[in-house]
Design brief:
The complex is a heterodimer. Chain A is mostly beta strands. Chain A contains no helices and 18 strands. In chain A, a hairpin with a 2-residue loop joins strand 1 and strand 2. The N terminus of chain A is likely disordered. The radius of gyration of chain B is 16 Å and the shape is globular. In chain B, helix 1 runs parallel beside helix 5. Chain B is built from five helices and seven strands; from the N terminus they run βαβββαβαβαβα. The model of chain B has no long low-confidence stretch (mean pLDDT 95). In chain B, 29% of the residues lie in helices and 15% in strands. Chain B has a single domain, classed as SGNH hydrolase (Rossmann fold, 3-Layer(aba) Sandwich). Classes of the chains: A mainly beta, B alpha/beta. Chains A and B meet through strand 2 of A and helix 3 and helix 4 of B.
Chain lengths: 230, 223
């Protein structure tokens, strides 16, 4: 399925929303109507991340308005997509192009990260099937996209308290935490790397992501509030 | 000397699903109860509407609308949902009461659509919160296992627990505490008899009347 097939005009890639599986139950039993009681299949969502230093375009189809990501806005919202459908398109950054293909299973929030790879680009897809929805807590996810950071850990800045540790490359860990003001510190091989990252005051019911990304100068952290495109 | 209800003088917008979309269902006894407590009530029901459907205009198979104890207006296939922002802008309610649960539980499906439900519920609660309006969410009541909707106790409880954990900043009213499974007689496992709806309506009205004033209105918040 081409990304463009689901493109809505008002928001680039909101088109993916058209793929959301929302089959209501409209069957009738005699003269008695049956009202929808929820979808047969859970929703699925896909977002894109510019993991490099150059702006990234996510192209659904040549000639159509692409999704634009850059240092000012490196993380897209999650777009509703058809669960279990393969979504295809093209990632374009710094004159480099990469065909992208992604499939999100029911209940899955899938993150597609575009990373520089020598003279080209590479796609890393991280699959998140959360079960921690809670309006009284904040949800924080830690995505490891940097294989150069050994045994990566995310700690409370200034304290020897690991929030996450041992996240394999290309995977994430997610947990519910109290909605507090929080700053985090990356550690590789049990040694602090880079400056602390201030996440600010976390809000109850919000979902957040911290992504560990590779750069020529070493690992860096990217913080994003997870949102869903409507 | 009777004490005035905390609901007295409040404007309440009530949104619901099929339970509020037909005559002799939930709307009439609930509006009567809230009106008796001094509230100014506007109730709208849309069959099969999930939470997220109240962000858009969606055609549904049936619906109903009632103001106070006025005549309930039953709508046929011209019934739709109305975006919550429009409803709040027009009614300027102190509090929105959402009575949605059965349309989102997927009773007849093996898996509960957790991600879909989260997105749908939080979209509506955020839209209400963005207007600064208070919100109360009333969860599903026990039905009778089986029937055409395949309502069952386990999924009803799961749906209620999910809502309890995810409707903030709305206040949650747990309808499962109002009765025992099977206690209120249903016609199809999910929809109640007149007596059942009267019991549910009175329980909801009583629960609303016991909430702190700060959960129901911004009046006095600046004092």
């Amino acid at each position: 399925m081409k990304l463009a097939e689901s493109l809505r005009a008002r928001v680039p890639f909101a088109a993916l929303a058209a793929l959301i599986a929302l089959p209501g139950l409209h069957a009738a039993a005699g003269e008695i109507p049956l009202y929808p009681t929820g979808p047969a299949q859970d929703a699925a969502f896909v977002r894109f991340v510019d993991g490099g230093s150059a702006p990234l375009q996510v192209v659904a189809k040549d000639g159509q308005l692409p999704l634009q990501l850059s240092a000012a806005r490196p993380v897209s919202p999650f777009f509703p997509v058809g669960a279990s459908s393969t979504i295809t398109g093209t990632l374009v950054s710094g004159g480099k192009r990469l065909a992208v293909s992604v499939k999100a299973q029911p209940g899955e929030f899938t993150t597609v990260v575009a990373l520089p790879d020598g003279k080209g680009l590479r796609q890393v897809t991280v699959h998140d099937v959360p079960d921690d929805f809670n309006g009284l807590k904040a949800s924080l996810g830690f995505f490891n996209l940097d294989g150069s950071c050994a045994n990566p850990a995310l700690r409370v800045a200034g304290r020897a308290v690991d929030i996450f540790k041992g996240v394999p490359e290309g995977h994430l860990q997610r947990r519910s935490i109290n909605p507090v003001k929080l700053a985090v510190q990356l550690a590789c091989a049990n040694a602090d790397v880079g400056p602390a990252l201030d996440l600010g005051q976390l809000k109850a019911g919000e979902r957040y992501s911290v992504l560990l990304l590779p750069t020529a100068a070493g690992p860096r952290l990217l913080f994003a509030t997870d949102s869903v495109a409507h | 000397m009777a004490t005035a209800s905390v609901l007295a003088g409040l404007t309440i917008l009530v949104l619901g699903e099929s339970h509020m979309s037909l005559a002799n269902h939930l709307t009439e006894p609930l509006d009567a109860n809230l009106t008796r407590q001094g509230a100014i009530v506007h109730s709208i029901g849309a069959c099969g509407a999930s939470a997220g459907d109240w962000l858009i205009t969606k055609k549904v198979d049936c619906g109903a609308e009632q103001r106070g104890t006025g005549k309930i207006e039953i709508k046929g296939r011209d019934a739709t949902t109305t975006p919550i922002g429009q409803l709040i802008a027009k009614d300027k309610p102190d509090v929105v009461v959402v009575i949605i649960g059965d349309t989102m539980a997927s009773y007849d499906k093996p898996s509960f659509p957790r991600a879909w439900a989260w997105e749908s519920v939080t979209s509506l609660t955020k839209a209400i919160a963005a207007t600064g309006t208070k919100c109360v969410w009333v969860g599903p009541a026990w039905g009778k296992a089986g029937g055409m909707y395949h309502k069952n106790d386990a999924r009803t409880e799961l749906m209620s627990d999910f809502l309890a954990n995810n409707v903030a900043p709305c206040t949650y009213i747990d309808s499962l505490k109002f009765s025992k499974p099977g206690q209120w007689i249903t016609t199809d496992g999910q929809h109640f008899t007149v007596a059942g709806y009267k019991s549910w309506a009175n329980a909801i009205g009583d629960a609303l009347g016991k909430l702190p004033a700060a959960d129901l209105s911004n009046k006095g918040a600046a004092k």
